[in-house]
Amino acid sequence: MTQIPTRRAFFVGGAVLGAGALATACTSNAPAAAPSSAAAAPQPAATGGNDAAGTAVTIGFSAPAADHGWIAAIARNAESAAKTYSDVTFKPVDPTNDINQQIAAVESLIQAKVGVIVMLPNDGEQLNQVARQAMDAGIPVVNLDRIFPDKLSYRTWIGGDNYGMGVAAGHYIGKKLKDKGVSNPVIVEIQGIATLPLTQDRSKGFADALSTYGFTVTAKQDAKFTVETGTQVATNLLQAHKKIDAMWNHDDDQGIGVLAAIKEAGRNEFFMVGGAGSANAMRDIQSGNSVLEATVTYSPTMASSAIKLARLIGQGKGMSDLVENEVPSSITLASETITKDNVAKYIQLGFES
Amino acid sequence: MIDTRQRGNVAGREAVWRRITGTRHAGLVVALALLAVIGLVTVPDTFATSSNLVSILALASTIGVITVGMTFVIIGGGIDLSVGAVMALASVWGTTLATQSYGPAVMVLCAVLVGAGAGLVNGVLVAYGRLVPFIATLAMLVAARGLAQRISEKKTQLVQSANDVIVSLSTTRWLGLPLLVFLFALVVVVGWLVLNRTTFGRRTYAVGGNPEAARLAGINIRRHTMYLYALSGLCCGIAAVIIMARTTTGSSTHGDLYELDAIAAVIIGGTLLSGGRGTITGSILGLLIFTVITNLFILNGLDTSDQLIAKGLIIVIAVLLQRRNALGGTS
Amino acid sequence: MLEVRNIVKHFPGVRALDGVDLDVRAGEVHCLLGQNGAGKSTLIKILAGAHQPDSGTISFDDKPIRLATPTAAMRAGIATIYQELDLVDGLSVAENVFLGHEHSRFGFNRRGESRRATAGLLARLGHPEIPPDAEVGGLSPAAKQIVSMARALSHDARLIIMDEPSAALAHDEVANLFRIIRDLAAHGVSVVYISHRLEEIREIGDRVTVLKDGRAVASGLPAHDTPTREIVSLMTGRSIEHAFPDRTGAEFGDDVLRVTELTIPGVVDRVSFTVRAGEIVGLAGLVGSGRSEILEAVYGARPASGTVTVRGRPVRGGPHGAVRLGLGLAPEERKAQALLLDQSVAANITLATLGNHARFGWIDRRGERAAARRLIETLDVRPPDLDRPIRTLSGGNQQKAVLARWLAEDRTVLLLDEPTRGVDVGARAELYALINRLAGQGIAILLVSSEVPEVLGLADRVLVIRDGRIIHQAPAADLDEHAVLDMIMEGSAL
């Protein structure tokens, strides 16, 4: 809370006076609205001499509209990573959730003959064609997160491990319950959007990991990655199961709503694992005053790494810790499990939802 | 001779009418009872518990409050597509750090005023700007979501611990019920009284049922229409407070597609989409049917897709029954 | 060619047609005359297939036919051009002409062919300048009428029924219309022509059939040389005598309603008059003469220039303001403009004066119901049931409820537009007595009726309206039905 009082007064005053002046009151106050402790560009562990200025590279960037904390963090991370290099010109296009618009945006990057394109497609299948066009035009594409089916459509893929996330959550829950000696535990899973392949991968990893302990998922329901759907689904699930041993919620954003529902129901007999690794979730884990004990990462820091990779590709460099002269064609980030013990190390990487 | 035959006809029609009005909500009550029976049979140990029933009421409360406002607008011959977006906007505006620094009372006031203000804009556009309600409120839907995203910078805004009084609406219980259920009940009761016991309510039926007759009877139909949308916006503001309490957040993603659920509940409840006829009781029963269906599906561990199919079927069946009633009433 | 025999048609409470006969020969222009409510529109709708007769026969080309639907009538070769033209504004001329019987192959419209055929029809009607591709919504009323006729011809219609085709047309456009009608007749097409204007009938018609009270009182009169007096007396002269209250000796107070230079461009032209407290003033005129528009403008329901004052205070702010100044309107279209059909009798009666039964917006239900009950009893609304939906009442009782709405508080001026339309005979007498009683209480009443005897029987003073102007005014006692009909139909002030 580092607010300038006069601005604050104006803002609330405007609200109180009614929404007649909706537009003006809030444009002028947008900065005051929610000052995030914006995720500082995560600094790399060590990249040796590669950070020294080299040939200038223009990096085009295209991602979906940031209507979700994770995606917003992706855009922010990409931008701040690019800013740290004097030899990088960052050229983002309008973020959009419309497939056609994203295709058009990427086409405009091809026309502009940028050096490298970093793209998080709305849908890998549907954007495959345009990525292929870029590659054919000699522009390397760094594919972020959602993968293109055609290997000719990207130079390098970097992304999280959805299956691995499920595995990490499954191992955490499985081990903990095994240690406690619980038999036939009630394990509840709250998914994100059920129709997405990433959700299905996460669920499969979760089930597979649990099965190594001889456990199965008792019930699963899908929310829609929003706080509100998280509340709705959790409220009903808590009614359906009077006693729960463990819960995995795929997404920390909707997790806020899930936790609110748990609090409202006054339940605390179980522990919960989150997903993605938001700053909120980490703070909850740190404070230890909710059922949330751990979260498995699917970190938006991958966007920072993607920009770095794009720069290296543009400059024809390899990754200095590796023997090879060029950047690898595929990098899968590990899903890390954050608990109270190691949360301090991660907390500055957490994204604000 | 003609006279007696006519009287016979009228008496017959009257009987038909009485039967329809008397049993106006019977179909809904039967449907609800049927769902309850399904619940008792399929999930006997979870469905009929008091905590599950409380959950159903808590779940229904957000859209419920919106449905009350929507009932007024639709009886008044309009439609409000912007409800979900306006609720999101109010929730966001009510939870900015700036607003939060003034404490919970200001947060509530801010949410309610933003809701009412956005509703007023709808009302002015429809009543004085002569925009078709569908278009005016569609524009508001899009714009209010955009504004909510802008203010929140697309982030989820948490209610801070200093303002936990708001969250206590959801966590504090009185007589075994969360306070927000009482808030919901209060809105329903006040809505019912306004619709049935005040000149405003009576004129709402007149404006929706026959705007020309209302105008010629000296009712200022434009001003009245404006108030109806402002009222709907006010309800969205109250719903925003409830969602803030329930999710501990304000977010531009709140209330997605609420407009469809609210309109569906109103229609299932027997309110004519063309206006002039309808009840709050019916709308709330319609909403409860929807909420119980969702609850039953989750209690049974069924897929959400089937739940959507069931809801679609219920809308169609309800409207078909309604049309039969309407024909019976007028023929 | 067309033979209609003994057609009977009932509507609830009304016998609209009571054994009508009509004969139309090939290639003739047959005029249909009659006052409002005589049964003309019902007869047209039966010929167009929109209504089914209760009994009677229709034969076309000596063969009995059944016109079960509008399409059946079209197929038989009978086309109807209604007063409110039934064209789709958003479609082109050609699309309208061939609407429902498009030139098509495999479901695809053959638009070129439609355009050519339309152009041919329009040329035949003497209007090749109307482009087949133009959007109908942008055409003038006269051009729209031509399009309607082209549509009729596109069905190879051999009998075209025209309902007041000249009402929306300017003078020279009427001349063109007549040229087309003559041309059609010369090609063997028969035309049934309905108009209130005798001069038109004399010009274009061959023979005349006069309807009155659902019967044809004269058929096949020669249109050119039957004396006006004879036609008018056929149209008037009631079969049922109404008991009009005796208004002699009625006492009037001061001028209450004063209307000065009231003008609605193109409809009403500088109309000025006054109504005194306790006086009934009647407006006599045809549909479209501006009589209803005058009422609506006085009430503030229609924009107009000029001034209207009630007891010296100007009426402002639309109906809302008019009601505050003590005006009340019982509009022409009871169901469309006055009633909340789904609502109870009580709610309908107290609609305008609800504020009197409410404190801070909260309705005093007992007070409201008591007031409604009192009015139902005073006006003898039957059945005397407050909670019954008003749609289940007969027309007369609905009308009483509309009047009751304005009696719930003291009104200064009542504007009554067709107060007895759709009301059966018995109930009319009651309404007349009621209106008389209201005037006796000192209410100034302005009355519009299409039925000249009603205006003459009820009003103290009559204003004759034609083409938006008052062409004559006189005490009712000094006028008779013939004279008034002459004036409103032919415009010859005495």
Helix content of chain B: over 70%
Oligomer classification: heterotrimer
The side-by-side strand order for the widest beta sheet of chain C comes to: 6-9-10-3-11-12
Structural class of chain B: mainly alpha
What kind of sheet is the major sheet of chain B? 2 strands, antiparallel
CATH class of the largest domain in chain C: Alpha Beta
- Please outline the major beta sheet of chain C: 6 strands, mixed
CATH architecture assignment name of chain B:
Orthogonal Bundle
Question: pLDDT below 50 for ≥5 consecutive residues: which ranges of chain B?
Answer: 1-11, 17-22, 327-331
Rg of chain B, alpha carbons: 21 Å
Helix content of chain C: 25-40%
| Low-pLDDT residue spans of chain C | none
Describe the secondary structure blueprint for this structure.
The complex is a heterotrimer of chains A (353), B (331) and C (494).
Chain A: H1 5-16, H2 22-27, H3 30-33, E1 57-62, H4 69-83, E2 88-92, H5 99-111, E3 116-119, H6 124-136, E4 141-144, E5 156-159, H7 162-180, E6 187-191, H8 197-211, E7 219-222, H9 227-240, E8 246-249, H10 252-265, E9 271-276, H11 279-287, E10 292-297, H12 302-315, E11 330-332, E12 337-338, H13 343-346
Parallel strand pairs in A: 1-2, 1-3, 3-4, 4-5, 5-11, 6-7, 6-8, 8-9, 9-10
Antiparallel strand pairs in A: 10-12
Chain B: H1 2-22, H2 26-42, H3 44-47, H4 50-75, H5 83-94, H6 97-100, H7 104-127, H8 133-152, E1 157-158, H9 164-171, E2 173-174, E3 177-178, H10 179-197, H11 199-209, H12 211-216, H13 221-247, E4 249-250, H14 258-268, H15 280-299, H16 304-330
Antiparallel strand pairs in B: 1-4, 2-3
Chain C: E1 2-11, E2 14-24, E3 29-33, H1 40-47, E4 55-60, E5 63-64, H2 70-76, E6 78-81, H3 93-97, E7 104-105, E8 108-109, H4 111-124, H5 141-154, E9 159-163, H6 171-186, E10 190-194, H7 198-204, E11 207-212, E12 215-222, H8 228-235, E13 255-264, E14 268-276, E15 280-284, H9 291-298, E16 305-310, E17 313-314, H10 318-324, E18 327-330, H11 334-338, H12 345-349, E19 358-359, E20 362-363, H13 365-379, H14 395-407, E21 413-417, H15 425-440, E22 444-449, H16 452-458, E23 461-466, E24 469-475, H17 481-490
Parallel strand pairs in C: 3-10, 3-11, 6-9, 9-10, 15-22, 15-23, 18-21, 21-22
Antiparallel strand pairs in C: 1-2, 1-4, 4-5, 7-8, 11-12, 13-14, 13-16, 16-17, 19-20, 23-24
What features would you highlight for this structure?
heterotrimer, B: 331 residues, mainly alpha, ABC transporter involved in vitamin B12 uptake, BtuC, two-stranded antiparallel ribbon, 2% strand, disordered N terminus, C: 494 residues, alpha/beta, Rossmann fold, 6-stranded mixed β-sheet, 24 strands, globular
